Each structure stands twice: as C-alpha cells, then as structure tokens.
Amino acid sequence: MGSLVEKARAVQNLFLELEEEAKTFHQEGGMGCLSGCGFCCSNPKVPASPLEFLPLAFDLESKGIADEVAKQLALEEEPGSCVVYRKLSEDGKKGFCGNYAQRGLICRLFAASARRNQKSGKKELITCKPLKEERAQAFRKVTEKINDSMDVPIAAHWYTRLADIDDHLNQLYPINQAILLALELVLTYRFYTQEEERTAL
After folding, report:
1. Looking at the predicted structure, is the pLDDT value of residue 193 above 90?
2. Would the CA dihedral through 164, 166, 168, 174 be positive or negative?
3. Beta bridge partners of 123
4. Is the pLDDT of residue 93 over 80?
5. What 3 state SS string does the chain have?
6. What's the CA gap between 38 and 30, in Å, rounded?
7. In this predicted model, which residue has the larger pLDDT, 86 or 201?
8. CA separation for the pair 143, 25 (Å, rounded)
9. Nearest C-alpha neighbor of 12 from the set 188, 177, 161, 153
C-alpha cells in the first residue's frame, strides 16, 4: 500500500466493516461494555500497534495537538494508561474514551469479538472480569449462542486484515508507545509533505 494517509484510510475502512459486525452482535447478544467502565482502559499494558492508531494520530494532527501529545508521551518514565482515556475515579477504573471515534482495533474488539480456545476449539468471548461478574447469566447465554449459530467477529481475522495493510506497522507495544509511534510517523509525514509543497512553489 502507498502513503501513510492511504494506510490510515484503509484502517478506517476496516473499522467501519468491524463496526457493522459488532453492532449486529451487540443487538443479538446484548453484551457491550458496562457504561462508564474504564477497567481495561486504565491498564497501561494493553497491547496495540502504531497502525491501528494512525487514524487517531492524523486526527490529533488536524486539531493541532499531535506534537503536544507526542511530547507528553515521550516524557513518560513508565508506560501509563491510554493518553486519550479520561479517568473519573481515583483508581482509574471509571472513565471514558476522550476520542471514541478514533479508538484502536483492540478497543473495538473488546466485548465485541471472540477467540478460539486452542484445546477445545470453542469460541470464547473476549471480555473482562467486571462484565463477566455483573452480567454472568447473559455472558453464559452468549457463550452458548456463539458456539451454536450466533455470528460473532473473530479477533484473529481482524488482526490478519490489519496486518495486510502494513505488517511492519502492526507490531505490538504498550498502548501509549503505539500511539507515540503513530504520532511520530504522522508528524514526520506532515513535515516532509509540507516541505515538498514549499519547495514546489
């Protein structure tokens, strides 16, 4: 695939496809994330790739804050929780995404996809402890349904589709490092494209 912009568009198109599948699954299964829960978002070790955060990086760049956010992330001594996550509780377990429209693939797959158990071959919903505990009965029903006839996005399929866009940029890092790398790519890209435009004048 060509330029960084084209790759970001391809990622966005992939997200739109997934959104349709996830919407259908949520309507049939009723197992979306708990409202106001930030249990996963507060975890600094969430694995993500620069590729899935290219749309976010371009969005922050268009708002004129990409450089500021990149500097903030570069100063982190220890990986922190996602830079766009907005905490509403001291322990960080309550909150919301500050840029939900541009969230990464990992965020989109959680509670909306399944993986296959390597031993049993059965599908397992990818979700968290709070959701399993608070909606235990619904969780059991959905688990039965996805192993019967209910369609569910399979996480591995979407990761393969993402890798097809650019396998090199699909390497996994702690989430803030992945976002920082995406921002650096976009800022460098913008610098050189603007330089070319100035030279052409």
Report:
1. no
2. negative
3. 116
4. yes
5. CCCHHHHHHHHHHHHHHHHHHHHHHHHHHCCCCCCCECCCCCCCCCEECCHHHHHHHHHHHHCCCHHHHHHHHHCCCCCCCCCCEEECCCCCCEEEECCHHHCCHHHHHCCCCEEECCCCCCEEECCCHHHHHHCHHHHHHHHHHHCCCCCCCEHHHHHHHHHHHCCHHHCCEEHHHHHHHHHHHHHHHHHHHHHHHHHHC
6. 19
7. 86
8. 12
9. 161
> In the structure encoding, which two tokens stand for residue 195, read together?
């330089």
What is the per-residue pLDDT for 32?
80
Phi, psi of 127, deg, nearest 5: -155, -170
Amino acid 137 reads: Q
* Chain segment 1-16, per-residue pLDDT in tens: 579 999 999 999 999 9
